[in-house]
From TrEMBL:
NCBIfam families: ant_ant_sig (TIGR00377). This is Anti-sigma factor antagonist. One of its GO terms (molecular function) is anti-sigma factor antagonist activity. Belongs to the anti-sigma-factor antagonist family. The lineage of its organism: Bacteria, Pseudomonadati, Bacteroidota, Cytophagia, Cytophagales. Residues 1-109 form the STAS domain. Transmembrane segments: none annotated.
Amino acid sequence: MKITQQSTDNTLTLALDGELDASSSVLLDTELTKPDVLKYQKVLIDCQKLNYISSAGLGVFISHLQQFQDAGVKLVFFNMQEKVHNVFEILGLDALMTIVPSAVEASAI
């Protein structure tokens, strides 16, 4: 798993590349736990190169969801591959989290 960061004044974009499983979820959790993450209005998760997500990976996002909401930070997923999106749908997480098709739509939220 590789995580690439890009930021603007109010938006942090994390591009995920590879498989988000039990071992790599620790890396993602470390990124999302950094104090400066909550200074952004939006955290965008680019899933274009994310080809697998395990329950541990999903758990990282779920564990940070309330913290982001309390801080007024919008968490938005975009460019999600169909097989990854299906996992979110099956678990009902698409109702809890914002998932949009493209970077343009993610930036517009």
